[in-house]
Design brief:
two-stranded antiparallel ribbon, mainly alpha, about 300 residues, about 60% helix, elongated
Length: about 300
């Protein structure tokens, strides 16, 4: 009996594989491309979600408390007054900026805009008196704390060898401005706001505009549609974080040393935010309620996550 020999067929090149072998990948790519194109249908909403945290940072960084305060001091006419000014110049971080910038002024006991310090002789004792014209209790506290710090410097000098020596050993080569910490703390909120707000609004609009019917009639499982939407939301959330990082870098000249690491940290946050926003839109099916749920969840989660604390 003649047994036919095996015929070796030429290997099929990858370029010859028809697209029909990858129907799901091709459909998912088309879905994702369609999702990205939908950006043009709601440009104002996207701009608000992407730029709002960055605008918040730029505004807040201009009014946040800076380490150095201009403290107005009546120009000293005595040795005690000059000693106080010298002590003020010594107050500060060993690796950062000084806390006090003494500004000499001429004061004739007229109305004070913020505050002024004058060294008076009371009962033969030189006394630093701080006059305030403020109603902001937080600024009053900061000014008083700086005068107290200068007084402690004078007290330590007077104690001489009996003074308690405090050795300060910084962890970092230089002090990090609070604006940098604030920008780092805003990063997760930026990602969460962009992902949850856009997810909620887009999902709710599908019901309000009736376009959800098209998805229901599509010959593809709903999971692929939701997956494409989540990929889009994650990308937009990371773009929003990138915009904030650029703003922080321009304001503070502090740039991330490991950009990929920052992205990997924010990736699960963006995925959770997009899932929460999409779920709110699917359940509520109304733009305003879904938007409020996403907004409240973003801020509550940020506050519970220590918000203004050191990231």
């Amino acid at each position: 009996m003649n047994i036919p020999s095996r015929v070796d067929r030429p290997a099929v090149q990858a370029s010859q594989i028809p697209n029909s072998l990858f129907p799901f990948a091709r459909r998912f790519r088309l879905l994702l491309r369609s999702e990205l194109r939908l950006f043009r249908t709601s440009i104002p909403m996207h701009l608000v979600a992407l730029l709002q945290p960055t605008l918040l940072y730029v505004l807040m960084s201009s009014i946040l408390v800076h380490p150095t305060f201009d403290v107005e001091v009546v120009r000293p006419t005595s040795a005690a007054g000059q000693t106080l000014v010298t002590a003020m110049e010594r107050v500060g971080s060993p690796i950062g900026l000084p806390y006090i910038r003494p500004v000499g002024v001429d004061w004739q006991e007229e109305a004070v805009t913020r505050q002024v310090i004058v060294v008076e002789d009371r009962g033969g004792v030189p006394t630093a008196v701080q006059h305030f014209g403020l109603v902001d209790s937080n600024l009053v506290k900061n000014y008083r704390n700086r005068l107290t710090a200068a007084a402690l410097r004078l007290w330590e000098d007077a104690l001489g060898a009996r003074a308690v020596v405090v050795e300060q050993r910084p962890w970092l080569p230089r002090d990090v401005p609070y604006n940098v910490y604030f920008g780092m703390a805003l990063l997760p909120m930026t990602v969460f706001i962009a992902g949850s707000m856009l997810g909620a609004l887009l999902a709710a609009q599908e019901f309000e505009l009736g376009t959800v019917v098209e998805y229901r009639l599509a010959p593809l499982a709903p999971g692929w549609v939701v997956a494409a939407r989540l990929v889009r939301l994650v990308l937009l959330a990371l773009i929003s974080a990138a915009i904030l990082l650029v703003a922080v870098g321009l304001v503070t000249n502090a740039w991330p040393a490991d950009l990929v690491g920052v992205g990997l940290i924010l990736l699960p946050v963006a995925l959770i935010a997009g899932s929460l926003g999409t779920l709110a839109g699917l359940l509520l099916r109304r733009t305003i309620p879904a938007f409020l749920v996403a907004l409240v969840a973003s801020f509550v989660g940020w506050l519970m996550g220590s918000a203004f604390g050191l990231a």
